[in-house]
Predict the 3D structure of the following.
Amino acid sequence: MIYCAYDEFCVSGVSSDDWGVSYSPSHICALKDSTVIMRCTYTYPTGYQIKKVFWTKTLVKYHGEYPDLSNDTEYSQRLQYLGDKQQNCTVRLSHVTLKDSHMYYFRFITDKPDVKWTGVPGVNLTVTDLQVESPERVTEGDSVSLTCKSSCALTDRATFIWYRNSQPLTERRDRNNELLLQSVRREDSGRYSCAVDGHTHVSPAVQLYVMYPPKNTFIVVSPSGVIVEGDSVTLKCISDSNPPAEIRWFKGRKIVRSGRIYSISKISSDDSGEYKCKSIYEHGEKYSNAVTLNVMYPPRSVSVLMRGSGVIVEGDSVTLNCTSDSNPPALNFSWFKENETSTVGSGQSFSALQSGRFYCQAHNQHGSQRSDAVTVTVKGRNCSPSPPQTILMA
């Protein structure tokens, strides 16, 4: 009987059972950047000695021989032969890459001329990375499942680890490649990735968006203290939702602006009033509580009101009242006689007993303003009435 082994040689008088290479397993699925051990044994008839052993990834000869992986620069630093020249042909390949996915064959050369053997079929190595499969958007309260996927079933039994925003989810470490989030919360939003315990490779992160409606909508006013006419005031509508809600502003029942921030430069008393913001979401809307802007300003439109014509008889008096528009209302009033520097009275009312032109000045903590002057004329009791006087009023 003549036996020919893989077109290498023909040997007379031997059985095919005397020659062989066995791989266990013959299919390996390994994770990117991991270390792979391809276990291998080989047999040959007695009377032969093994001169050379090596691994190759091609059955195409170059210069009469198959390429030795240990001479390949892509493998030489990562490949370590763990076998011998008798039976064991196991090899270790570290830091595997996706490009390492290939068929690999063990080959030995004997001391007899042209008696060589290649173990066919070889080891089919598939290198895979990890990918997270997840819906992009879920609604708060729903259940969502994320899957850590590989292109093949990993040969080594794997324990999966999950990360959110690069932080390990320590409660999720098991042999299941699925991450189940029941009744998902807004805090579950983030970038999810997965890995296999004991390996450095981590999958690319996938963003999970948890959609939720506004729960608390409120207004922040800046500055938060007393607002004086002429100040710049900013109202900010705080409304946490995903996606962000559309914001509209109301003064009373009138829409005055849209957008999250409502800025008023050089605020005036006309801007005083009650403000609300409304968050408009695809599944509903929500109003904030009202805030009141109470704009303070100094006295203005100060005037003197006089009872009667302003002509009085000697010994009588006329009452003058000082009125003003201010916020807060003016509480301090000073009375002056024109062309005199010192005050002639205080309080909102003043009794004039002599002829002259009088005016008042109203004060609050934000400023003061004076009125125009009014004329008071006093005539003697035994004198004929004075000619009509012109009364000036503010």
About this structure: The chain has a mean pLDDT of 88. Residues 2-128 form a domain with the Immunoglobulin-like fold (CATH 2.60.40.10). The chain is about 0% helix and 50% strand.
